[in-house]
Amino acid sequence: MADVLAAPQQSKADTGLRTLTLISAAHWVSHFHMLVLPMLFPFLKTTLGVGYIELGFALTIFAVVSALTQAPTGYLVDHFGARKILLLGLCLGGLSLVLIGLHLSYSALIACAVLLGLANSVYHPADYAILSAHMDEARMGRAFSVHTFAGYLGGAVAPAIVAALVTSVGGVGALIVSGAIGPMVALALLVFGVPEASAKHQRGAGGPASKQNIVTPALMVLTIFFMLLGLSNAGISNFGVVALMNGYGAAFSTANVALTAYLGASAVGVLAGGFLADHTHRHGQVAAICFGVNAGIVLLIAMLALPPAVLTAAMTAAGFLGGVIAPSRDMLVRNAAPAGAAGRAFGIVSTGFNFSGILSPLLFGWIMDQSLPRWVFGLSAAFMVLTVVLAPFTERKREQRLASA
Fold first, then answer.
1. What is the pLDDT, as a whole number, of residue 118?
2. Which percentage of the chain shows pLDDT scores above 70?
3. Mean of the pLDDT values across residues 179-206?
4. What end-to-end distance do the CA atoms of the chain give, in Å?
5. SS3 for 372?
6. In the predicted model, what is the mean pLDDT of the chain?
7. Is 207 inside a domain boundary?
8. Which of 106-115, 122-131, 156-165, 333-342 has the highest mean pLDDT?
């Protein structure tokens, strides 16, 4: 088994495109698997005889487990190899869905949520460790952008794929087939030879990463930064339609078109942001400028009842700017990570996203329950302003670290 999992020695030129394709495929799976259970809620509610509170509790379990295991998984990635951990994550996530498909029960659903949360903690530390070690430095921003775009794509196509599976093979079949995708992609990574990445691939001047302090002020600020990014996006993505309908009198079709434009523009913005990230070292300033403008746009949406065409244009611009900063966001983490500790660094900061996933449904749900739909956009704008405040601090910390190296 050790020989099978050992990556062959290949040059960056030989492995670059193949590595990016394989790692992006794995990221596609992670976002696809996150939405399989929510897309099957109607089937699970009827079959298991439970309510939406019980089903929502399973998603909370998923988010909590993923949040608690991100940083420990980053440690495993750096010390045992990102390739091995990624393969295990793909298989674990897939088999968890197969498990509930073969044994439909509420206890199996909770077990599936735990295993999916554990599997989800693998992707960011492992993916970014491999990309950081094996991609061309001059194209690192674009590599990160393609990787992020693949994740967005996995989430975007999940509803259609799951719906098609339910129609063709039923709810149980949809669970089993969706789960089987994980081990299939893991097999593809083995066959096509995704390279390994661990602490030994990046030795800094100060010695092995295991002797360095990974919990740095820059990474702590970036963790908060990631949480604020998640909160600013979650409010609009999850509650944008109902907020527009209840607070502004927008028609259901208008609200859905506006949200679709926002999400689609985010994906395009990610790809554009990759080129921008490769042509600047001021990633914190990129994030600050984009989100400063974005905060103004979202605040405008919060304050005014815009005509449908103007609303869609504003949502498109907001989504695009939100996507543009994603590669620069990832470059900030890579620059702040001690040598050989990319897995742990991305594991730590990714907990910010997990915590936003736990907090945002409660926070924005409470806002809607208080009949304050405009504050869905108003509070999102406030979170964007806070990211603007934090971004220069992370950039400044990075410069101080480089100066002292």
1. 95
2. 89
3. 79
4. 39
5. coil
6. 84
7. no
8. 106-115
225 with 352: CB under 8 angstroms?
Answer: yes
Q: Are 248 and 305 in a shared domain?
A: yes
Cα dist. 389→224, 286, 385 in Å? 11, 13, 6
Secondary element (H or E) of residue 144: helix 140-191
Residues 225 and 175 in one domain: no
Q: Which of 224-233, 311-320, 335-344 has the lowest mean pLDDT?
A: 335-344
**Cβ pair 351, 67 in contact under 8 A:** yes
Contact 23, 194 (CB under 8 A): yes
| Tokens 């209840």 sit on residue | 246
For residue 264, pLDDT over 60 is answered with: yes
| HSE-up (13 A, CA, CB side) for residue 158 | 24
Task: Compute the Cα dihedral for 372, 378, 383, 389 and give only its sign.
Answer: negative
Provide the 8-state DSSP code for 205. T
> Does residue 340 surpass a pLDDT of 60?
yes
Count: domains in the chain:
2
Contacts of 63 by beta carbon, 8 Å cutoff, 6+ apart: 117, 354, 357, 358
